[in-house]
Fold:
Amino acid sequence: MTNLPPEDQQKPAAPEKTPNPRREFLRSATLFTGTVAALGGGLELLSRRPGAVAESVQPGLIGQAKRPLGPYDAKDAVTPYEQATTYNNFYEFGTDKADPARLAGTLKPRPWTVKLDGEIKKPMTVDIDTLQSWFPLEDRIYRMRCVEGWSMVMPWLGFPLAGLIRRMQPTSKAKYVQFTALLDPKQFPGQKSAVLTWPYVEGLRLDEALHPLAFMAVGLNGRVLPGQNGAPLRLVVPWKYGFKGIKSIVRITLTEKQPKTTWSIATPSEYGFYANVNPKVDHPRWSQATERRIGELGRRPTLPFNGYAEEVASLYTGMDLRKNF
Structure:
């Protein structure tokens, strides 16, 4: 095993009914921004948190708006918006970090539907705007740790996954949640490559999905979620490695059996189902003890569960986290 993180190595070949002003902004902005939104430019933030005083942030001041930290917010400095939207892993667009921002204009986030099915009482297919209207939108500042050894701090806008799961009304057989991303090589040119098996799929245990930290993002920095960051709907589970955060979701299925996941299909010896951030369990090809925070010099120690151990460690009581990596 080498201690070099992958960015220093050669890349492997084979990752409410009442109108809500902010929601209406997100919906209308998505419809007309096109490539501009995909490149992260030009949109203003209307408000920060339900009930808060609305404020406007000019494009040059993205990430500088002040608001009281919420109970789930990381206190770390937020990664600049330009870096958060131009350094991305989104293999559906390509394997280079610059590919998603360069090619995301091909993704059309409207019209968009999400299929809700499996072990639930009433399967349905719902329009993204209808789904989004079911929940008040919240801001969450989360740390994000990539399995490759780099990290960011992301100010997401969205709603708790638990609310959606409960609305789906799971049956007694539901034990896991499977997520499926869009399969469309016209919108995702990277899907023309066999680097992964498409469509991208991910999964959580039901109790993980119901944890208050598990989040469905529809925006970033209070703006419409850019294509390169997973528009129009992506999963965020901050105590797990970033590849668990499946992007551009079109289907959410509750299952009795543990679902397959894309990276564990591709390389099961390297990427497990749980993917909890664990500095004591190295990747076979590099150490996970430290990370490079984007925008900073040097490396910092990686924290167990990405710094969320107090909140989530109890989910894994009695489990061997080396075996269940």
